[in-house]
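Troubleshooting: if your tokenizer reports a length mismatch, compare your output against this known-good record of 300 residues.
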Amino acid sequence: MSTPAAPTINGTTSQIPPKATSCKRSASHAARTLTQKAGRRYGRPIALLYSPSLAWFPPGGVFMSATVETTLDLKKLALSRAELFAGLDARAIDRLAAIAEWRTVPEGGTVVRKGDPGNHLFVIYRGKVKFGTGAADGREMTLNLLGPGAIFGEIAFADGGERTADVVAVENSELLAIGRRELVPLMQSEPEVMLRIMEMLAARVRWVSEAFEDAAFLELPARLAKRLLFLAQHFGLDTPRGRALAVKLSHKELANHMNVTRESVNRLIQKWRRDGIIDQERGFVVLIDAARLVDIARSE
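Known-good structure output:
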């Protein structure tokens, strides 16, 4: 068997360890699947330009973020499905696709770190990422969780300042990265794109303001109920027993979402399980009685 070619990652050449071969095959299969879907979307075959030698997931989930070449049509597909850019005219999508870079990040890999320069705006095509920050004493807080179609990185992108949080892939993820240097001139010549980004910034400010109000004025039951309803809306699947979260969250991770102790969340979760409001199946939360959670969220 011939030795696989060394990948080019962010402009540098690296040697692929022998154990990465199976990871490369997985990346190749994922690439073919994405290309086939894009072909069905546009009604014609699309040449496979994604090379597994350009993006691979190292064994053990070690961080690797690789910029890869992929089809222009696939980039257009990802952009057209994004919340921010959905409905834009074809010319604007074409111009955005031309400056976007495809990136793959394995589960547990870091997309950006707090304090990094805000050089890119990111579009999630596949996977999920979580936002977090920490204190010097080791305490952590999860700020948000986003999935396919979401945009992130707009705060630091807007002024070119530092990133305000760490962003980590919760599962193997595929993203589009749009550079600030390329996007700002495009915004100046495409007013609709500029308006969309302004609306996104306004929505983020409103979301942050609401989160601060909840932390200041709501008791834990109302805050946890709101968080579970939010996660169920954006990352839920309908099952015979109720709406199940499609992402596995431990009691510690739920506590990190609200900056409270794991013990307090654990007691409340157990009470709600006894009351038949929620349940947990293999680590996944199931909303048995979502209406009661709505009442709890509104009661305080």
